[in-house]
Structure to design on (107 residues):
C-alpha cells in the first residue's frame, strides 16, 4: 500500500526505482541509502519511501534476512534500521546506486 501524497518522496524517481521499478523493497532500500549515515525507524523509512508503515513492516524482515538491512537498536520500543554495511550484497547495491546516479541522475 503506497501513500498518496502531493510531495515527492525520496524514493520516487530514485536511480534504483528507475532501474528496478517501484516495488516496496526497492523503495525501502533507496530510503535507507538516502540516510546511510544514521539509523532510522519504520516511520522515517515509510516517509522517505512513500509507503505506509504497514508495508515497510511487511518487507523489512525479508530485507533483513537477505542481509541488506540490519536492525541496529531499539529506541523507546521502536526498532531502528540501516543498510547493513557488513553485507557484500548491500555494498554491491550501494555501489550500483552510486554508479546509476552517474548515468541517470537523481530525478
Amino acid at each position: 500500500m503506497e501513500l498518496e501524497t502531493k510531495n515527492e518522496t525520496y524514493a520516487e524517481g530514485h536511480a534504483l526505482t528507475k532501474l528496478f521499478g517501484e516495488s516496496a523493497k526497492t523503495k525501502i532500500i533507496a530510503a535507507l541509502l538516502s540516510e546511510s549515515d544514521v539509523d532510522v525507524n519504520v516511520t522515517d523509512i515509510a516517509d522517505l519511501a512513500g509507503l505506509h508503515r504497514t508495508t515497510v513492516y511487511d518487507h523489512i524482515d525479508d530485507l533483513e534476512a537477505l542481509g541488506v538491512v540490519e536492525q541496529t537498536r531499539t529506541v523507546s520500543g521502536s526498532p531502528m534500521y540501516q543498510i547493513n554495511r557488513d553485507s557484500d550484497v548491500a555494498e554491491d547495491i550501494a555501489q550500483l546506486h552510486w554508479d546509476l546516479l552517474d548515468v541517470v541522475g537523481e530525478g
